[in-house]
Amino acid sequence: MIYNVFNEDLLIWYKEPQFKSQHIKLAPLPDIINEKEEYEVEKIRKYQKQRCGTQFLVYWKGYGNEHDQWIVEMGLPHAKEMIEDY
User: Fold this and answer.
1) What percent of the chain has pLDDT over 90?
2) In the CATH hierarchy, which fold is given to the domain comprising 28-85?
3) Helix (H) or strand (E) run with residue 59 in it
């Protein structure tokens, strides 16, 4: 039998956010196309050449900077026009 132990002294009371900057904006749900999750590219920030091809640093629409990802060009089939504009 496995028991989970937690020190209750580490718990603190929840406080309502006092400032606008403390409110967390929820990320949008992905579109479901052919039973696969699809996310929308808002901006391409950088690119780099790798052995596997060109990678792009993608900023996803509705998400923060912490969610940016390096994606290989083949992984962005619906963002060809955005890649060309970059």
Assistant:
1) 35
2) OB fold (Dihydrolipoamide Acetyltransferase, E2P) (2.40.50)
3) strand 53-60
Instruction: Specify the DSSP class assigned to residue 8.
Output: G
The single-letter code of the amino acid at 61 is K
Q: Where are the domains of the chain?
A: 28-85
Distances 46 to 3, 59, 72 between C-alpha atoms, Å = 47, 10, 12
How many CB atoms neighbour CB 54 within 10 A? 13
Q: What's the confidence (pLDDT) of residue 48?
A: 95
For residue 42, count other CB atoms closer than 10 A to its CB. Answer: 13
Q: For 47-74, how does the pLDDT look when each residue is reduced to its tens digit (9 = 90+)?
A: 999 887 899 999 999 888 889 999 999 9
